What we know:
Helix content: 10-25%
Structural class: alpha+beta
CATH superfamily of the largest domain: Golgi alpha-mannosidase II
Low-confidence stretches: 1-45
Mean pLDDT: 91
Radius of gyration: 28 Å
Strand order of the largest sheet: 30-29-28-27-26-23-22-33
Largest sheet: 8 strands, parallel
Number of strands: 41
Distance between the termini: 81 Å
Amino acid sequence: MWDGNIIIGNIRKFSHNFELLNILPMKKILFVSMFFSLVFITGYSQDTASLQKGYLPKNAIWLENLDLSKMSSGWSQPEAGKTVDKNPIKLNGKTYQHGVGAHSYSEFIVDLFGEAEKFVSVAGVDDECIGKGDETKPYGTVVFEVWLDGIKSFTSGVVRIGEQARFISIDLKGVKRMVLVITEAGDGTHYDHADWAGAMILLKPDAKIKPVAFSYTPDPTAVIASTNNETPGIHGAKIVGSTPGKPFLYLIPATGKAPLTFKADNLPEGLVLDSKKGIISGVIRNEGKTQVEITMKAANGIIKSKIIIVAGNNKLSLTPPMGWNSWNVWGTAVDAQKVRDAADWMVKSGLAAHGYQSINIDDAWEGARDETGNITTNEKFGDIKALAEYIHSKGLKLGIYSSPGPTTCGGYEGSYKHELKDAQTYAKWGIDYLKYDWCSYATVVPDKSLKELQNPYILMKKALDTVSRDIIFSLCQYGMGDVWKWGESVGGNLWRTSGDINDTWSSMSYIATYQDGLEKYSGPGHWNDPDMLVVGKLGWSKDIHQTHLNGNEQISQITIWSILAAPMLMGCDLSQLDEFTFNLLSNDEVIAVNQDELGKQGYRIWQDEMLEVWAKPLVDGSYAVALWNRTAMKSKIKVNFKDIGESGSYKVRDLWLKKDLGSFTDFYEAEVPSHGAMLVKVVK
């Protein structure tokens, strides 16, 4: 026999919406009756307390009991009942017996087979993050989303660390597939430890099939054209800039059957051409724009092309940087020999002949400062000036890394209070590119104001402007303070718009979609940077592996990065390039989209949930168009020509196949593999 007062006591624990203390006996009986109806019909009381205590109704399963290996996470593999840091799940001081913790960006696809009735969870940023983030760097802010059969059915809005967690109750009647998503809230992914606490799926009483985590089976990789380095051609950017009075270096990107010889007509005064290496070098004396005609003679043909050399102040990086960075493969295990090898393989593989010309050292080269405050290298690097001379001899450029804080992200010596000395040292060594990473600077600034975000970059830019070399300035601060709105004004040639990328579909695809709307802040000499390419063999110095992106996902990244006019910086082991990766990186028609002289960033012109069309205007009046399928199944995507200009007849060329597809009226439609992309050029 149930005691009504005991029941009311239990109800009191679960209820935040009813005053029960003075309920009259009759009302008490009526309320108890309603309560039992609720429990027996839905199987639970709709509040956070019941989920916290771990009560599982008869016709329900915990989310954590599904195959969590299928859940993506920006960092750390999700585990049942654990946070990102493998602690018990705790929100607002309350510990939950069940649930799943993940790091943004996270995605979990669940097949429901139409057999479920409700999804219930408490969603919030775990208490384990409290006090861990940098005070001046946004952290612990996420957005929870629930997608049902391709439609976004719930969004939490921004959920911040320490805020009241959100109670979620979603009707699943008739739903075949549910996708649980955790995104960063537009301010980076720093300590975005998010929980689906107490999460459960309630099934129909007569359910015959239980939910299962979706096992994504990729479509066969789309065919892409191969690259023959013996086919005569001059590739890469057709415009390059420099400052008068500072060293100029440019390797003509050319292919053909050896031997190759070069000729350049109308070089600006002060420049010379090495006719055998195809390297233009020297010091331009005067400001101005010069059109130079290049002739390349190979054993199997002669090719002519024109490049524009622009001399003036702030004329660096007139097209997005292309090259290699050490971090995604070597991490802090990088050393001088690995960098030298990367330069050798950049040339040997032929990638330098397609426009990739920068070799960038990331963190972990730094040693202590000498008695006069000058930065030195550690024992792994030794003489960087000699390394720079070696790389320059190949026509390539050398980049380096530092932080405005006392230490770098890897704990090495930063540039704090030594900005001018470091800039001068870089120039003396022959450095051409500086990646300047926020890192520990958060410990020396009092607040998160825009002024504090800008100051360290203004200071270093002033120092760079005083030295004797052109040094491209890369701002790495993860998009804080909407850096795209002010990055150019503080002297940046490029700036990161997001947190670090990793080689997962969820990470890459989310960062890519986040770029839409930023196009008006990008252009020649100042580029939005969604982080590096995650193709080829990677490993961050730990476990070197082939990228976790499948073939179509890799095609998607190169396609969208080209449309975005994003920097094309590889992070793979160049000594282990497979044929597919090489063909992916060396397609000159795709590269031409990225390096187009007009310098316009592309933008999304159409979207139907996770099917998208992006377009980028080109200097010749045509458009590059990407048909991008973010769904888990092959789908048809249509581009309506009126969305890029006007209706009528357009010629369409498939750039990945290097093949003309014919003329089409009013629209072009194609079937695109799951997680894949098609890149076409559309000409009126």
